[in-house]
Amino acid sequence: MRNLDVTTLRSFVAVADAGGVTRAAGFLHLTQSAVSMQLKRLEELLDLQLFDRSGRTIALTSAGEQLLAYARRMVALNDEVITRLTDQAFEGELTLGVPHDVVYPAIPQVLKQFHALYPRVKVHLEASYTKTLKDQFARGACDIVLTTEQGVDQGGETLCTKDLIWVGAPGGTAWRQRPLQLAFCKYCMFRGPITVELEAHDIPWEMQVDTASDRAVEAAVSADLAVHAMIEGTQPPFLERIDHGGALPQLAPQQINLYADSGQKGELHAALISLLRAAFEDRPVSRLRAVQ
Predict the structure, then answer these.
(1) Residue 39: CB atoms within 10 Å
(2) CB 267: neighbour CB atoms within 10 A?
(3) Are 226 and 208 in contact, with CB atoms under 8 Å apart?
(4) Domain with CATH 1.10.10.10 in the chain
(5) Of 3.30.43.10, 3.40.190.10, 2.60.40.10, 3.40.50.1240, which CATH number belongs to 164-241?
(6) d(CA 264, CA 252)
(7) What is the CA radius of gyration of the chain?
(8) Residue 184 to residue 177: CA distance in whole angstroms
(9) Which CATH class is domain 6-85?
(10) Which residues contact 116 (CB under 8 A, 6 or more apart)?
């Protein structure tokens, strides 16, 4: 009789969710070699190849995909039993503020992982603009906020620096028009510096869409009526990076910063910060990283 180990299954799920061993090890507070060894033992126990290692990166095999569904259920059931039968479960509330444009793809996974660790803790997600979030944080309305900025204020921590890119409709031609038609929200931190760059490069422009709605911006851009700028990796599937060949100015990189209440020293606060740090490291889009 062969028995599956929940700890090993948890590592397997973490690698699948995090996109690689390095990030999974951070979530699990284990070394990369320890996680890799657990994956190897799991494959040996099942006598199955769970990962396709034919290229520089790996992906789940069909057997791995089948195991993933079972592994999620087994880990979740284990955690439910522990939670229900112990009296030490954490309870409470946290408010996390995140700019609209960086909610996806990282934040849903962070919330999912945090809920698995602390199922009785409620996380209130506040999605808004960087300036608004920083004001809320200063008033104590948010425990933790993320921002997109070209610098970082005192007390902040830069999680990563990402390129700011021009985006438009797939195969669109709006970027060729002059005056260049732009679509931005009224309070977007990018619009001011971008218009300055356009003027510095003698590119005439008009604000085709000036709105408070991100959806209105996306609709106009996807209809090829205007262009927009987004942090690389956050563009939705119906928009694409514009390959303008130098016809548009290169935009300044943006920092994704974290601000946290220094007075909060508890485990819940620290755990959420740890997950956010890990989530905004460089990550692949469609395939898992090679097992190290």
Answers:
(1) 19
(2) 10
(3) yes
(4) 6-85
(5) 3.40.190.10
(6) 33
(7) 22
(8) 17
(9) mainly alpha
(10) 75, 76, 79
Place of tokens 């425990």: 143
What's 92-162+254-279's CATH class? alpha beta
| Residue entry with tokens 């602390």 | 118
pLDDT tens, the chain, 292 aa long: 789 999 999 999 988 887 778 888 888 888 999 999 999 999 999 999 898 777 666 678 899 999 999 999 999 899 888 777 765 567 789 999 999 989 988 999 999 999 988 888 999 999 999 999 999 999 999 999 999 999 999 999 999 999 999 999 999 999 999 999 999 998 888 999 999 999 999 999 999 999 988 899 999 999 999 999 999 988 999 999 999 999 999 999 999 999 997 666 688 899 999 999 999 875 433 333 333 3
